[in-house]
Design goal:
Number of strands: 12
Oligomer: single chain
Strand order of the largest sheet: 3-2-1-4-5-6
Radius of gyration: 19 Å
CATH superfamily of the largest domain: inorganic pyrophosphatase (n-terminal core)
Structural class: alpha/beta
Number of domains: 2
CATH class of the largest domain: Alpha Beta
Length: 310
């Protein structure tokens, strides 16, 4: 009997990660020849909830550990970010838009990775290559992946391909993009039901950088001050998280998605020394202002990796 096949993104999933897993599930039979269930490794954020409610779609099942399932992995190849229990034997496919993070497989697997704005765009390309028709709901899901992950094309991760793809998808979806992105980012910024631990953990990823373990969390918001006023609670929570996870460094940034800047939290001497060495921002009261920095993938991780991976 064949193992159950699931599609899943990284831990602490962002919207692109969840919706990409759903898209793989919707097109599983046409892409791979068999049915696939979309699941999530952690609870979803308010932006993702907004999209699922908007489209009247059911939230994917929560799965904390792989048992006998075969896995189509989306939106990451970093072992530190992957659901517990995933092995070389049960990995069957990878669809992603990040750097190679060190995954291994015991057999040949399907892989499609491209340096574009989101995994949703990669899935669009797969569907085009296979001449698979895209329905309206799936078109909207891919549009959301693009808008969310590229911050409406303000992130340096956005490419010309993403812009072309969104234009083609909206021929099907027929959305008022300006109105829709406003509603999407209002949901992205919502602090409703969000604790300080949620703020630092909802979009948090771990990285191996040379001999160092580094945690980086971000919170994308239209008004960063609504988060920054909680600094006296956030910094102790980050210190606790760093100790609990035995990180060598931990960073957290509130990302201003309207003005395209970030506020990087500096929680201790190690982070202070490192951030002054690799970033050009000015620090005040344990926060470093980073002008024009909004991408963890393109602007935070590479400079830290370059320094720590020596």
């Amino acid at each position: 009997m064949q193992n159950k096949i699931i599609s899943i993104g990284h831990k602490n999933p962002d919207t692109d990660s969840v919706l990409s897993a759903i898209l793989v599930s919707r097109f599983g039979k046409k892409i791979f020849g068999f049915g696939i269930e979309a699941v999530v490794a952690d609870d979803i954020n308010n932006e993702t909830k907004f999209v699922l409610d908007f489209l009247k779609l059911k939230k994917p099942r929560l799965l904390k550990k792989i048992k006998n399932e075969s896995v189509v992995l989306v939106d990451t190849t970093e072992p530190k970010q992957i659901i517990d229990g995933l092995t070389e034997d049960n990995l069957m496919a990878v669809i992603d838009h990040h750097n190679l993070g060190g995954l291994k497989s015991s057999k040949p697997i399907y892989t499609h990775i491209e340096p574009i704005g989101c995994t949703g765009s990669v899935i669009y390309k797969i569907l085009q290559e296979k001449n698979i028709k895209i329905d309206k709901i799936s078109a909207i899901l891919m549009i959301v992946c693009i808008l969310s992950d590229t911050l409406n094309f303000n992130s340096p991760t956005a490419t010309i391909d993403d812009k072309k793809i969104l234009k083609e998808l909206n021929r099907i979806a027929k959305l008022d993009i300006k109105k829709f992105v406003s509603e999407l980012f209002t949901a992205k910024s919502s602090l409703k039901g969000i604790s300080v631990d949620d703020i630092i953990s909802k979009d948090y990823k771990q990285f191996d950088m040379g001999k160092y373990k580094v945690g980086i969390g971000v919170w994308e918001i239209t008004d960063p001050e609504t988060v920054n006023i909680q600094k006296n609670k956030i910094i102790p929570a980050l210190i606790k998280k760093k100790r609990g996870e035995k990180m060598d460094y931990i960073f957290f940034a509130t990302v201003d998605i309207m003005k395209n800047n970030s506020y990087l939290y500096i929680i201790g001497d190690e982070e202070n020394i490192l951030s002054k060495k690799v970033f050009s921002g000015k620090s005040k009261d344990s926060i470093m202002f980073l002008k024009g920095v909004i991408s963890r993938k393109k602007q935070l991780v590479p400079v830290l990796m370059k320094e720590l991976g020596k």
